[in-house]
Amino acid sequence: MPALQALPHLFSSVERGLFPQRGGGFQTVGVSSDLIGTEDLNLLEEAAFYAVSRERRAAGALPVKETFFKLPSGRFAVGRTVDLGTDALGREGNYLSHHLVFGREELLEAGANPLAILDTVPLAEAETDLTPRELAPLTLDLTPEQTDPRIFEGINPALLANLATRTVDGGTETALLIGDETASRRLLRVLFAALAREERLRLTFSTHFYESHHLRSLFTLASVNSRSEAPPPRQQFTLCDLGDGEFPPAQPKSAYAAWLAERLKARDWEAVMALNGTLDRLRGNHPGLAQAPLPESAKACAALWERAGTRIVPELVGSPRLVKVFLQHVPAPSALADALLAAAPPSELCGPNAAPETVNDCLAKLKSAATGKHWSQWVKQWSDDPVLASISQKKSWWQKWKR
Amino acid sequence: MARLFYSKHRVVATVGLQGHGKTVFLASLFRDSFFVLSETMKPFAVRAVTAKADDVFYGNAQTLHDLALPPANPRSKPEPAVLEFAYVPRPRSQRRRNISLTFYDIAGEIFSNDRMAGEYAPFLSEADDIIFLFDPTHPDFNALRAARLVDLVARVAGRSGRKNLIIALSKMDELRDQDEWADTIGHLWPDTPPSQADLPTYFRQMDNLSQMLRLWWTDPARESRNLMNLLAKQTRFCALSSVGHQPVWDCECRATNPGPLRQCVQCHATRVGARLRLVRKPEPFRVRDPLFWIFRAAGVM
Q1: Is the bond preceding B43 in cis, omega lying within 30 degrees of 0?
Q2: CATH dotted code for B8-245+283-298
Q3: Is A157 within 8 Å of A267 (Cβ atoms)?
Q4: Among A38, A60, A91, B155, which one is most buried in terms of CB atoms within 10 A?
Q5: How far is A75 from chain B (nearest CA, A)?
Q6: What is the pLDDT of residues A34-81, one digit of tens each?
Q7: From the candidates A16, A39, A54, which should be mutated to test the interface with B, based on the most B CB atoms within 10 A?
Q8: What are the domain boundaries of chain A?
């Protein structure tokens, strides 16, 4: 796994921060010079918010808040915020937010799993140096992610499918998990395991959302400890109660969401991980992954075509049976057919060892799916190709009559 | 929101730098109305209308009651905390009026620049009353910082000439024995809450105190002449103490130290992580004056 570059940001209540003209109070204490003066830094400061209910403070049950969100530049921030006792004035309620900012492509290549980063990198530790200063970028060496299918055990598959659908298909509402924040974090971990890498970037989250509804637009998923901690304008949230297992239904809009929801409900974790692996490999987000057989079910083909597009073409070249299967299952197959015609000559497209019936079926399917112009150009271009000989010998009644 | 009583409504912004006492002032203000004025100005009453008001006022009043200080405000856009005051008396009148006030309790550090103030305190533009709280004992306090804050708020609030401005000095318990304050507020100590019959006298005290404090601000030693020249003539001045005594902190060596001290008087250890606490129940001093100025500006008192 390549080393991952991260730009750090520290935020707390101090007497003097990195920008002394601001005086005392909550502010940036340290940040990488690349972030100074950017909109990204403004958002990091806004998101560095931590409030605890009176009851939890009195009980000494101070939660750890973990976040993952997108910045205006397109980069992503992973953060942890912890209670830090008293501030310089001796008041309770001080906290420390520690963010790491990553480039999109680097994050994808590293697995796009913020929880894996949070589990590995020490963030917001009690002994963090709060001397105001510019912070040097960090280079993180993350261990390659190995998803064990047992991670899915004990999770309500219907809830998992529901949240996966909401994450993939997006929307304006934030899903608000109500219940033990540790259970919410576990659910998040499983949800990340269920998504392909690019889709993981949609799964922005906050694990402690108390009094944070002003930050709602940053997060796809947020969690609070109890209903009393849920924000008041609840119509902007989809409430998912982990206690009673109640959550409103989510209707998949995309082919990928439909397939994923179906497989998750069926507890077919192996299929989920296999297709996500294929997607990651096709998109170039996981170059080291070994090639695996493509799925052949109608919904999986549609999902793969929807997400990977023409990047699937090289995988189909040489396998006329798969060409036929995909052309049969993808909605509006002309784009795929045209891309296949543009990608390879007939012999290469159909492979060396295919049975004549399979080749004929494949060509017939290609002909019916491709746009007429592309098909005739392809046939003309490769008229000498032996695979085309069989169909070029068969003249239509019109050609026979014309001659 | 269902209201118990028909009432006028005003938006009140409390403005001050970090640690100058905004949150404790609001908690103490509520406490004074709840426990003291409801007794001396019967049937005067106060209630929290919004959930945020419940938290800011009841919650923090309870914290003071428990001899602790409210936690620091995180930096965020505050929710409106609405209080409804019922049966507000008028001097020499049997008529009682109701009024609801929307308060915003906000972290002081957002007043460090225009962008943050505009972003986090958009309520400034709709505020009818702006209470500036300055702690003259705070090391950050000086004329330049005070004027800078007032200018910043004027820019963000817009049309500040039409707003009811109240300049309040907080934590006066620490200064009341000093020579310059002994004549101004020493004779008013300890605080005497007014009954309806006392209101004319109390108002005269408020007027006199406001004039004397204006003189204090315009004293060449304060270097605040520029600020005073810019403020509208109807700007009111107050001097108050929200808890009436200095909070303390306990050192690990078991010594009890005054709040402002950064090192233990006994073992000289630096105050790290020690929490401030009150040594007895709050005994606020004239914490109601800004509220009464708002009532008077609204025409209900």
Answers
A1: yes
A2: 3.40.50.300
A3: yes
A4: A91
A5: 23
A6: 999 999 999 999 999 999 998 899 899 999 999 999 999 999 999 999
A7: A54
A8: 1-146, 149-310, 317-403
